[in-house]
TrEMBL record:
<keyword id="KW-0812">Transmembrane</keyword>
<keyword id="KW-0472">Membrane</keyword>
<feature type="transmembrane region" description="Helical">
    <location>
        <begin position="47"/>
        <end position="67"/>
    </location>
</feature>
<protein>
    <submittedName>
        <fullName>Uncharacterized protein</fullName>
    </submittedName>
</protein>
<feature type="transmembrane region" description="Helical">
    <location>
        <begin position="7"/>
        <end position="32"/>
    </location>
</feature>
<keyword id="KW-1133">Transmembrane helix</keyword>
Length: 89
């Protein structure tokens, strides 16, 4: 892959990772702020499982995006020349 394309794609994936992390944090904030705990008698088991699953899914997606961006933006390794009987191939 062309180096410039790798950098552009890495930055786009990094932005997607930050957006997924922001969405997960916003979901936690809205979950706590909007859910009427007192009116419903507390958090139900299904509500906790659903919101926990969505939260873990968002965090897993953010981690995956950060990993892919790291792999795209890290500089490629320099290949060492192969030596065979003192000669470089």
């Amino acid at each position: 892959m062309h180096p410039v394309l790798r950098i552009i794609l890495g930055i786009v994936v990094l932005i997607a990772g930050f957006y997924a992390l922001y969405s997960s944090a916003t979901f936690i904030w809205m979950m706590v702020k909007l859910h009427p705990v007192m009116k419903n008698g507390g958090y139900t088991t299904s509500y906790v499982l659903q919101s926990g699953g969505m939260l873990l899914g968002g965090l897993a997606l953010a981690c995956y995006f950060f990993y892919r961006a790291y792999k795209l933006l890290k500089p490629p390794k320099k290949e060492e020349p192969i030596e065979f009987l003192g000669e470089e191939l």
